[in-house]
Write a structure and sequence with these properties.
The complex is a heterodimer of chains A (150) and B (621). Chain A has 150 residues and is an alpha+beta fold. Chain A contains 7 helices and 4 strands. In chain B, the strands form 5 sheets. Chain B has a 5-stranded mixed β-sheet with strand order 2-1-3-4-5, covered by helices on one side. A 5-stranded mixed β-sheet of chain B has the order 11-10-14-12-13. The longest helix of chain B has 18 residues. The chains are: A alpha+beta (150), B alpha/beta (621).
């Protein structure tokens, strides 16, 4: 089944090698991470070395080579957020979820990530969960924010 | 409908005017990323509901960011014959109050921020005019001319504000050479960071041999603390498309790419819509305006790599490769995307182009300083009262930006520095507050203009920690191709972490300076070449803070965890008990709600108590 989805995505991009990043983005949107078998399929169908596909997948931060939780919690660590308390928010979320940044809770509910500037610097500190951006956070509000995501 | 003559463009503009100024009430809600994050979407839904309940004839529209993010969500009401009225903090609750007042035939000025003149009306309201609001008082909007005004999804509204008229003018009245001349004479310089004269860059690409050329928009706004490009893309995407089309005409290109960072999903959505609409109207694609000129734009999404903001890395990334920089020369203008001559300009630069062509180079060159023309958009953020996007003429002083527009420091604290230029820039201390802001003046302080992030820092910001922060950022973002950048940053970071942990040594500072100089001089691209700037400027201007960390094991700003201790000032404590309840490590012990003991060994210095303590009885030293 995995191959079928990957094939659809590749077909949409005309099996063009230069669309590799876009292809991986779509696979990740579909699966929430990049499973090794999908990467192998991409390499085979585009007729490029697997190392090239892995190179791209590991170079760009947006890609995950391990499964991620249902909700990806991205703590913005841009400069404005940094000076307005992002490190404390990150620590607090890490304590609440009992994980380090870059890791996923055992129940696969949350993945905690640090992210570089979400461009909402005026309402710092900011955390994005999925598509939703939470601004002007405090430690307390960051903690209660998690309850909204089952 | 495909637009092939001026009458049709005028008709499109008239359609836009009818929607911008309808013959009944128009309400717009700012739903850019920042607006949505502060409740703009909920406000929009509330307005929709109240309007339906009251049976009002209202044109409800979404718009981009009007800049004053501090007071978001922002809502605007326009009734026929009246000026526009801007409402602040318009969350769902206040949005309902506003609509209910309108339903009673009353303008609820008590909830409003200001009114914006339209046709010379002089309302009787006890409400400041737009330019009497300190935040807007010194601004001059060219790049942000439409953001927060028009519906970014509406091509007619863009046309009503003069949109695509510059492209029409270029195609019908000017030769490609004349267009390049105009941009050169206007004195426009690259707004992405380095400030290379745009006209010169265009000419290099124009003159490069080859029949296939590319124009590229760098929308990989990576500098943390800068978000003007996001605002332009989300609020006025057509201005970038029009700028690129004009550039393509001038340089003889028929294909363009916009490279947008992955972190900006809404910008991508707005661009996709704008490109589709422009194609349908014949403003992009084959035979633009029915002329012999063809130009189409494609989107490329970044993958979350800071180095891709560097133009050679960006081009590698568009080609589907790892974003690693290449040695220049050859410059992209000579050998760029797929080996063809390529021009790369950033979002803000492109958005300036239509206005320069419409209003002429003399007008544009009349704004700014001798070396830096026009305006610059800054994102004024950090420890400042009024945060948001400000567009000001070049040459305005830092003091005017931070204190007049920004309203000074948050919580009455003391100004320490303003950080410009992102990780490539530096920290500028108070002695330079009266510096007129332009490319050269900022360079003289050891910082750079960069893309326009302006992060204000107060006495509670540790400058050693700031230097450490940027190096930590750059260590993760260095692509690793060249040794000076890869190793230099890593080693400098080791030293800074040591200093922040109170383990710094006297000999660390000269070593840091030596490493910084080597990294600066020998790195392959701009990332490494400018990486030491935050270190060098903080060392130059805030050496006393480094000394305090090293010699006294003290962090004067009380930021570096290893060097601070928390305690309670019982004289100030009002026995609310919040800290006892909240302390995650049980370091605060109390009887009922009265804290009686602070156990230093248990304290993890998370700062949770600081956040809840209203009388500020928590001491951090």
């Amino acid at each position: 089944m995995a191959g079928a989805t990957v094939d659809t995505i590749l077909a949409r991009h005309g099996y063009e090698e230069h669309a590799l990043i876009a292809v991986l983005q779509e696979i990740q949107r579909e699966r929430n991470w990049l499973p090794p078998e999908d990467l192998a399929t991409v390499a085979r169908m585009l007729r490029v070395p697997a190392s090239r596909v892995y190179g791209i997948a590991s170079f760009y931060k947006a890609f995950s080579l391990v499964p991620r939780g249902r909700h990806v919690v991205q703590v913005c660590t841009g400069t404005a957020c940094h000076v307005r308390g992002a490190p404390q928010i990150l620590d607090r979320l890490g304590r609440d979820l009992e994980i380090q940044p870059g890791h996923t809770t055992n129940d696969m509910r949350f993945t905690l990530e640090k992210v570089r500037c979400l461009g909402c610097c005026s309402i710092a500190p900011v955390v994005r969960v999925g598509e939703h951006i939470h601004g002007r956070l405090t430690q307390v509000r960051a903690g209660s924010m998690l309850k909204k995501y089952p | 409908m495909r637009i092939v003559d001026h009458t049709q463009l005028e008709e499109l503009a008239r359609e836009g005017t009818r929607s911008l100024c309808p013959d009944h009430t128009r309400i717009t809600v700012g739903t850019a990323s920042c607006g949505s994050a502060t409740g703009g979407r909920e406000a929009l839904a509330a307005v929709r509901e109240e309007v339906a309940t009251a049976g009002l004839a209202v044109d409800l529209r979404e718009t981009g960011c009007i800049g004053y993010c501090q007071v978001e969500p922002v809502l605007e009401v326009l009734r026929p014959g009246e000026p526009r009225v801007l409402f602040h903090h318009a969350d769902a609750h206040r949005a309902r109050l506003i609509v209910r007042a309108l339903a009673e035939g009353r303008m609820p000025t008590e909830l409003a921020l200001c009114w914006i003149p339209r046709n010379g009306e002089r309302p009787e309201w006890a409400l400041p005019r737009y330019d009497e609001v300190p935040f807007y008082s010194k601004q001059l909007k060219i790049v942000l001319r439409n953001s927060g005004v028009i519906d970014p999804d509406s091509l007619p509204e863009y046309a009503a504000r003069g949109g695509y008229h510059a492209l029409w003018r270029a195609l019908t009245e000017m030769t490609p050479e004349e267009v390049a001349d105009e941009v050169e004479k206007a004195g426009l310089r690259g707004r992405g960071g380095a400030g290379v004269p745009t006209g010169r860059k265009w000419r290099l690409c124009r003159d490069a041999p080859g029949d296939e050329k590319f124009v590229v928009c760098n929308a990989d706004e990576g500098d943390p603390g800068a978000y003007m490009d996001r605002a332009v893309l989300e609020g006025d995407p057509h201005s970038v498309l029009e700028g690129m089309a004009i550039g393509a005409y001038s340089m003889g290109s028929s294909q363009g790419y916009i490279y947008v960072r992955d972190e900006y999903p809404l910008a991508i959505q707005k661009l996709e819509r704008a490109i589709a609409d422009a194609r349908t109207a014949g403003l992009l694609g084959r035979s633009v305006f029915g002329s012999a000129f063809s130009f189409d734009v494609h989107l490329a999404r970044g993958g979350g790599a800071f180095v891709c903001g560097e133009e050679t890395s960006l081009l590698q990334s568009i080609e589907g490769k790892m974003g690693e920089p290449n040695q220049r020369p050859p410059f992209p203008a000579q050998r760029g995307l797929w080996g063809k001559p390529t021009n790369v300009n950033n979002v803000e630069t492109w958005a300036n182009v239509p206005e320069i062509v419409s209003r002429g180079s003399a007008w544009y060159a009349g704004i700014g300083t001798p070396s830096s023309k026009g305006t610059k958009v800054f994102s004024l953020v950090g420890k400042v009262q009024n945060t948001g996007l400000v567009e000001v003429p070049m040459g305005i002083t830092l003091r005017e930006i931070v204190f007049d527009i920004g309203g000074g420091i948050l919580g009455g604290k003391k100004f320490k520095a303003v950080q410009t230029g992102g990780p490539s820039g530096g920290c500028i201390p108070d002695r330079f507050l009266d510096l007129p802001v332009d490319y050269e003046e900022l360079n003289r302080t050891g910082s750079i203009m960069g893309s326009g992030g302006m992060i204000v820092m107060d006495e509670g910001t540790c400058m050693v920690d700031v230097a450490r922060y940027f190096l930590d950022f750059l260590r993760e973002e260095s692509c690793g191709k060249c040794v000076p950048c890869r190793e230099g940053i890593e080693r400098m970071l080791e030293i800074l972490e040591r200093i922040c942990n109170g383990e710094g040594r006297e000999e660390d500072l000269p070593l840091l300076e030596e490493l910084a100089t080597t990294t600066k001089d020998f790195s392959l691209c701009g990332l490494g070449g400018t990486a030491p700037n935050p270190v060098l400027t903080t060392l130059q201007y805030f050496r006393d803070e480094y000394d305090a960390h090293i010699r006294e094991h003290r962090c004067p700003a009380a930021v570096c965890k290893a060097l601070v201790h928390y305690s309670i000032d019982y004289a100030l404590c009002d026995d609310c008990g919040a800290c006892i309840k909240l302390c995650p490590s049980g370091a605060i012990v109390g009887e009922a709600k009265r804290p009686t003991e602070f156990i230093d060994e248990k304290c993890i210095k998370c700062g949770a108590c600081l956040e809840v303590c209203k009388p500020a009885a928590i001491r951090v030293q």
